[in-house]
Design a protein that fits this description.
By secondary structure, this protein is mainly β. Helices cover 9% and strands 35% of the residues. The strands form three sheets. The chain has a six-stranded antiparallel sheet. The two termini are 16 Å apart. This is DUF4232 domain-containing protein.
Length: 205
C-alpha cells in the first residue's frame, strides 16, 4: 500500500467513524477517533496471556465497544470495488473478534457476503483487540460476475465465540460512496490486524 493511499485511508477513518451504542447505531465523526465507552456482552472466552500462564476472561467485541468505518482502496479510486472495513476498540478492556464479519450489501441482500477461506491468518484463533487497537477485513464489492445491483447500505454483524452465534446487534457501516455496484462475485476476508494482508486477497480481483 503506498503512503498516499495510507494517508487517505487514515483521514477517511477519522471522518467516517461510527460508534454503535446500546440498542441502536449512532454516527459520531471525530478527528481524534472514537470516544471511550463501556459495554458488556454475553459472549466471552477464556484467554491465556502469552508467556504468563495466567488466565483472564475476554469478551467478544460487540457494537457496544466498537467504532466502525469503511474506505475505498486505493483511496483515490473512482470505483468503490475494493473496500477496507475497519473496526476500533473504543472500550476500556480487550475484546475478541471471531472469524470474519457477516456483511450484507444493500437492504435487499438475500445472503451474507461469502468469505475467502484462505484469508484466515491464524485459523481457529480470535483476533484480540486492546483498547484503541484496530482490525481489518477486506471487502470485494464486485468481482465481474453476473446480476449486478445497486447497494446503498452496508450492514456488518459480528460473530460470537460459538460457531453460528452473533455478538451483539447488526451495525450500519458508513458508506464510502453514495452507491455501490455489487454483484455475485462479492467476497470478504477474515479479520486481521494487518490491513495489507487482508487487501492482498482482493486487490488483484
Amino acid at each position: 500500500m503506498n503512503m498516499k493511499s495510507l494517508a487517505g485511508r487514515r483521514v477517511a477513518v477519522a471522518a467516517g467513524l461510527v460508534l454503535a451504542l446500546g440498542c441502536g447505531v449512532s454516527a459520531h465523526a471525530s478527528a481524534t477517533g472514537p470516544r471511550a465507552i463501556s459495554g458488556k456482552t454475553d459472549e466471552a472466552v477464556t484467554h491465556r496471556s502469552g508467556g504468563s500462564g495466567g488466565k483472564g476472561t475476554i469478551a467478544a467485541c460487540s457494537q457496544d465497544v466498537l467504532g466502525v468505518s469503511s474506505v475505498k482502496e486505493p483511496a483515490d479510486s473512482k470505483e468503490a470495488r475494493h473496500l477496507l472495513l475497519i473496526v476500533q476498540n473504543a472500550g476500556d478492556k480487550k475484546c475478541n473478534l471471531y472469524r470474519y464479519p457477516l456483511v450484507r450489501l444493500g437492504a435487499d441482500a438475500r445472503t451474507t457476503v461469502p468469505v475467502i477461506k484462505g484469508s484466515d491468518p491464524t485459523p481457529g484463533v480470535p483476533v484480540t483487540l486492546a483498547p484503541g487497537e484496530e482490525a481489518y477485513a477486506a471487502l470485494l464489492v464486485s468481482g465481474g460476475a453476473r446480476d449486478e445491483y445497486e447497494a446503498k447500505s452496508i450492514t456488518l454483524s459480528l460473530q460470537g465465540r460459538k460457531l453460528g452465534s452473533n455478538a451483539g446487534k447488526p451495525i450500519d457501516v458508513p458508506m464510502p460512496a453514495p452507491t455501490l455496484y455489487a454483484d455475485d462475485g462479492q467476497l470478504v476476508t477474515y479479520w486481521t490486524t494487518a490491513s495489507g494482508f487482508a487487501l492482498d486477497f482482493i486487490m488483484s480481483k
